[in-house]
């Protein structure tokens, strides 16, 4: 299938009901066909990995086409330039997360972009930085704990951002790092405790939410058993 065939496929399977429901999740409906993620995953398996098709779908600007681009692109062919160009187009959390987890987190530049983007003034680029941090916990099984410890100051700083989707990305990164091993759990709990004691709403929410999970008996017992 080429770009036009994919777009036609999406148009035929989209529904107004799905488009209308997107607003409840903070996803802009402009440029959306209304195709559920389940169908996109099925199509991505049918298409296989295709760098050129992914680039063409991204350039179309359509919501589901960009989700597909993240699912079918080839991580080993992604460049820094492409990552920056796509990040500049980020306009909702769903595209950010779908591109970061299956694609950007698998590139050699993931650590670099996680740190760089976490300082961006743009809401969804900044979210992408913290989403990448969370993804790296799951993707990079060989990374030493020290690499994740070095991210905690960036997370603590990012927690001061009051924008909803940044705040949730920060929270995700903190919770995920804190569930990697016992040492990181202890370090993340210290950060979460400081944030929870803040007089400002955003860091206080991030801290309390993360602390609730990271200090739970379920998480602690799992980490001890894994050790």
Notable characteristics:
227 residues, mainly alpha, Leucine-rich Repeat Variant, globular
Order of helices and strands: HHHHHHHHHHHHHHH
How far apart, in Å, are the first and last alpha carbons? 47 Å
Helix content: 55-70%
Contiguous helical run count: 15
Q: What best-fitting shape do the alpha-carbon axes yield? A: globular
Low-confidence stretches: none
Radius of gyration: 18 Å
CATH superfamily of the domain at 110-227: Leucine-rich Repeat Variant
Number of strands: 0
What would you say the CATH architecture of the domain at 110-227 is?
Answer: Alpha Horseshoe
SS-derived structural category: mainly alpha
Q: Strand fraction band?
A: under 5%
The major pleated sheet works out as: none
CATH top-level class of the domain at 110-227: Mainly Alpha
CATH topology of the domain at 110-227: Leucine-rich Repeat Variant
Task: State mean pLDDT (0 to 100 scale).
Answer: 96
Description:
The chain is mainly α. It has a domain at about 110-225: Alpha Horseshoe (Leucine-rich Repeat Variant), CATH 1.25.10. The chain is built from 15 helices and no strands. The protein has helices at about 5-15, 15-20, 35-45, 50-60, 65-70, 80-90, 95-100, 110-115, 125-140, 145-150, 150-160, 165-175, 180-195, 200-215, 215-225. Helix 5 packs parallel to helix 7, helix 7 (about 95-100) runs parallel beside helix 9 and helix 11 (about 150-160) packs antiparallel against helix 12 (about 165-175). The protein is globular and about 50 Å long. The mean pLDDT is about 95.
């Amino acid at each position: 299938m080429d770009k036009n065939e994919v777009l036609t496929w999406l148009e035929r399977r989209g529904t107004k009901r799905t488009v209308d429901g997107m607003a409840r999740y903070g996803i802009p409906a402009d440029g959306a066909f209304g195709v559920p993620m389940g169908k996109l995953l099925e199509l991505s398996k049918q298409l296989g990995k295709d760098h050129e098709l992914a680039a063409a779908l991204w350039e179309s600007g359509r919501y589901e086409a960009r989700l597909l681009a993240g699912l079918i692109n080839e991580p080993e062919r992604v460049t820094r330039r492409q990552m920056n160009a796509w990040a500049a187009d980020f306009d909702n959390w769903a595209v950010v997360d779908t591109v970061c987890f299956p694609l950007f987190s698998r590139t050699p530049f993931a650590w670099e972009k996680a740190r760089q983007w976490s300082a961006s003034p743009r809401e969804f680029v900044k979210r992408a930085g913290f989403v990448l941090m969370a993804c790296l916990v799951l993707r990079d099984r060989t990374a030493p704990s020290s690499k994740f410890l070095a991210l905690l100051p960036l997370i603590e700083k990012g927690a001061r951002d009051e924008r909803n989707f940044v705040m949730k990305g920060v929270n995700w990164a903190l919770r995920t790092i804190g569930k990697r091993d016992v040492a990181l759990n202890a370090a993340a709990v210290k950060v979460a405790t400081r944030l929870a004691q803040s007089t400002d709403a955003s860091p206080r929410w991030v801290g309390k939410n993360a602390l609730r999970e990271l200090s739970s008996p379920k998480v602690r017992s799992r980490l001890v058993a894994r050790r």
